[in-house]
Structures are given as structure tokens and as C-alpha cells.
Fold this protein.
Amino acid sequence: MQENIKKIIEEINVTGQVAKKCIRNEQKAINEILKQIIKNVSTCISISFHTLSLLESSIRPHVLLDKTEYITNVENKLYQCLDNKDAEECFNNVRKTAFDDLEREEKEILQNRADSRTATDDILDSIVTCTSNGLIKASVAIANTTHQVIKCVAKG
């Protein structure tokens, strides 16, 4: 296509008025193509951001125990140990249970973080793809339109 355009340009011998007329004839097509590309890219990016907000809302409810309620429950268990015959073993069991709960919570937080990171990477990849595809389509449209203008000018 590049060689074809070079050849046509070398053979052109016209005034600026002819070129302006040819460009005006293609202007509406150019504007429509660019509007459609912008609309498609914007829609794609918007969908990606919507996906991100869904991700945020799905992860937040699962993160962290209700600290106040949890501490109150642990305190109550510790007070119950005071009445237990083997208080030391009871305290040890409360400590172990608390440790296990917190370890489980930590694992869940780390898993949520990994899931979030993966989903966010996918969303960013999607945005890059949308934008790249839009730029490719714009480049193709501009090249085709330029080719049409050059052919129009060559015809005079």
C-alpha cells in the first residue's frame, strides 16, 4: 500500500482546491470513524472500571473479623477460665484458638490480596488492549482515508 501511495503522489499534478474538495468529501467519514472508535474504547474502559468496582465490593465484606466483638468473646472466654479447675489449660486453649482464628484471618486476607491483584492485572490488561485496539483501528482508518484522498486528488 505504501508503494502504491508513493506512486500515486508522484503522478499528482493538481491545485490545492482539488485537494481541499477531496479532503472535505472524506471529512464526514473520518469524523464518524473516530467517533465510533472513541465510543468503543470508552465503553471498553468503562466496563473494566465497573468490573473493578464489583471486585472491590465482593472482597471488602470478607476482610477482617469484627475486632470489638472478637476481643469481647476472647475476654469472656478468659473470664470463664478463672472458674475452671485447670485454668492454665483453659487459658492455653483460648490462646491457641485465638492464634488459629487470626492465622485463618491472615490467610484469607492474603488470598483476597492475591485475588485482587490478579483481577486488577486482568482489568489493566483489558484497558491496554481496548486502547491499543482503538489506536490500531484509528491508524487503519486514517491510512485508508488518506489513500482515498490521494486517489481522489489523482483523479482531479
Summary: DSSP finds four helices and no strands in the chain. Residues 106 and 138 are 47 Å apart (CA to CA). The radius of gyration is 33 Å. The mean pLDDT is 80.
